[in-house]
Amino acid sequence: MIGHRGTPEDGNTLRGLRDTTNAGVSGVEFDVWWSQDGIPVFSHDPTVDRTTTGHGPITAMTASQVRALRTKRGEPVPTLKEALSFTAARRLTAMVELKPTPTPPQLDSLLSVIRATGAAPYVVVHSFNADAVDAVHRAAPELPTALTHEKTQITGKEAARYGTSLNVSRFLVTPRARRDRVAGSVRLTTRRRGPP
To answer: How far from each other are the two terminal CA atoms of the chain, in whole angstroms?
Structure first.
């Protein structure tokens, strides 16, 4: 079972990851955005408005400015390095979701953090954005990547060009899709629709 962003009260925080882990999950899923100075930050939203007492886009703040903010329960906003250090130390699967396609410097910072934290054996980089998945897959073919796909049917062969897994809506998992994914050598996982 994969926890999504931590617990509802402390989503996108290390406390939320700890609470989720204590609930018995084998992994966690969370999103990444980059600060103005190019540091990957653990955040679901492109702005800090909903999840912290601050305001504004993460891309307009330095990592130090983002880190100084607090959630409504007083938790700091962690960097990706902190989140992956936490998951790697516990050997938890970390499903890192990218929203925008990373720029070359952002991609370098992402891969550097994954490797420096020792999280590479436990990370799956995924996205609804096929270009983002493709960029990571081309830059680091040794890392598991996955296209998250919920809108329309996709063949296993089509999905294989994006990596090792295809995360799909449970409504798209048909007998044909199961046979097809074997032909494309792609691991098929289902995603229950919940809060984005």
So the answer is: 17
Distances (CA, A) of 157 to 115, 149, 160: 29, 14, 5
Quick check: helix, strand or coil at residue 149?
strand
At 167, the amino acid letter reads: N
For residue 190, the model assigns a pLDDT of 43
Read off the pLDDT of residues 96-108 as tens digits, 9 standing for 90 and up.
999 989 999 999 9
Distance CA 183, CA 161 (A): 12
Higher-confidence position of 182 and 132? 132
Q: Which residues of 154-187 are buried (b: 16+ CB within 10 A; e: fewer)?
A: bebebbbebbbbbbbeeebbeeebeebbeebebb
For residue 50, the 8-state DSSP code is T
Question: How many Å is the Cα radius of gyration of the chain?
Answer: 16
**Which region holds residue 86: left if phi is over 0, alpha if psi is between -120 and 50, else beta?**
alpha
pLDDT band at 2 (very low <50, low <70, confident <90, very high): low
